[in-house]
Amino acid sequence: MTDRGREWWKTGVIYQIYPRSFQDSDGDGVGDLAGIESRLDHLVDLGVDAVWISPFYPSPMADFGYDVSDYTGVDPLFGTLEDFERLIAAIHARGLKLLLDFVPSHSSDQHPWFQASRSARDDPKRDWYVWRDPAPDGGPPTNWIAEFGGSTWDWDDATEQYYLHSFLPEQPTINWRNPAARAAMLDAIRTWFDRGVDGFRVDAIEHAAPDPEKGDNPVDPDWDGGGGPARAHLGAASKHQPEVFRVVDEMRRLAERYDPPRLLVGEAYGRLEEVVRYYGAEGLHGFQLPFNFLLIGAEWDPRVIAGLVEAYEAALPEGAWPNWVLGNHDRHRIASRAGRAQAGVAATLLLTLRGTPTIYQGDELGMENVEIPPDRVQDPWEKRVPGQGLNRDQVRTPLAWDGTAHGGFTTGAPWLPMDLRPAVTVEAQRGDPASMLNLHRRLLRLRRAEPALTLGDYRTISVDDASFRFARSHGSRRIGVALNLSDRPRPVDLNGATLLSTTGDDALTGDLAPNEGRVVALD
Ligand code: GLC
Ligand code: MG
């Protein structure tokens, strides 16, 4: 795309809000738009640049908003369109950008489009979704397994065909190959752009145009049994299909019609070669930022991490801007994966690697997975495939703001149990110089002050079985980062003045303390 100077998102930091769990304003125990508006100062104080809000559109909430029944509205649970207008104005007034979450691959089964589609085989919207006759044996047309378990095909008694869904049966797959459906979806994007949003995070894009004509998916010979039953197959026929890249190309062309162009951050899980294709390949335009999930499930080991960073740097196409993610509303909390003591090292890594970081709500406080008693499970994935460690409720628990009842999140009963450790609230951490919150604030301030940390090159300096060092350079400025992933002291092996230490003592010199991350201005 044309070079229009430096885009904000290259130096910016994105913060993900899971709206059900950020701040409740009306006492129903579920966060909402007015709640977000009342807490924007936290984001300014933290020092992020953009907010991505997970879906708040009208939805039956079978998948907590990722089952959309109206692409351009606001669910009453979260507020009204007026609340949205106030929120976006308040966000822009603080100099922040706003990204929404677009869910292209499926709607809710309650969407009027699907209601029409399933009403009769000759309904004009029949082809807006993916319908097929049974296989010759009467079973589903292909062997595909849905992400949340079971066949991707559900039988419709009334019209005697199967319809496709890549996630829940309540999330029928939209047929992007149908021109009218395609136009309606692009129109929804346009509506939000016209309302002033600065971009979208685009959900589960690899599932946007499955191709049943290709037949069965092959078994994955390397599957280790993790990640849910769908992982048993490779997605040869159902994921990352050529049509998906044409859909992305159209979305990007639309985003480029605005000044400044709107940002598209794409969610696609896949092998590294598959993911980097979403930057644009074979003459098609891609996303500015296809999410890089290499670290979101990685073993917390310096050699593994250094290897992934190098592999990613090497795989990036010409001109592609990198990005990093350690957590989101679907995956285990970083402080639980890496361990409480390592949370500061993880934050240092996320905020000093080359590329746009996305911080998941609560990670700035070191929030951990919260155990969910069986009778309080809400996540449909956990309900369908119990006991495989996939329960996303654990990472979606409400944020605690202060030491009052329910952490100041709600005056009612929170929709999920909360982590109410007194030290894991915004208020408690604001006053503690060594807190995770203040570490994030210091790291973000340093990023802003040091172009080497945003625009600089990346180079690995050294890695061993306990620590990892790398350098970022821009012009004559060279900054070193040393991360101690172990609980014993390690040599720092960088010469220069300390700029930041996760211990809270930014003048620290000498060996790295156990679990320390240090940033140094290299001599
Ligand atoms: C994405 C979302 C996840 C959702 C799924 C289906 O992976 O992040 O929360 O369940 O897509 O829309
Ligand atoms: Mg509420």
Automatic annotation (TrEMBL):
CDD domains: AmyAc_OligoGlu_like (cd11331). Keywords: Hydrolase. SUPFAM superfamilies: (Trans)glycosidases (SSF51445), Glycosyl hydrolase domain (SSF51011). Residues 16-396 form the Glycosyl hydrolase family 13 catalytic domain. It comes from the Bacteria. InterPro entries: GH, GH13_cat_dom, Glyco_hydro_b, O16G_dom_2. This is Alpha-amylase family glycosyl hydrolase. It comes from Jannaschia ovalis. Belongs to the glycosyl hydrolase 13 family. PANTHER family: ALPHA-AMYLASE FAMILY MEMBER, NEUTRAL AND BASIC AMINO ACID TRANSPORT PROTEIN RBAT. The keyword Hydrolase applies. One of its GO terms (molecular function) is hydrolase activity. Coiled coil: none annotated.
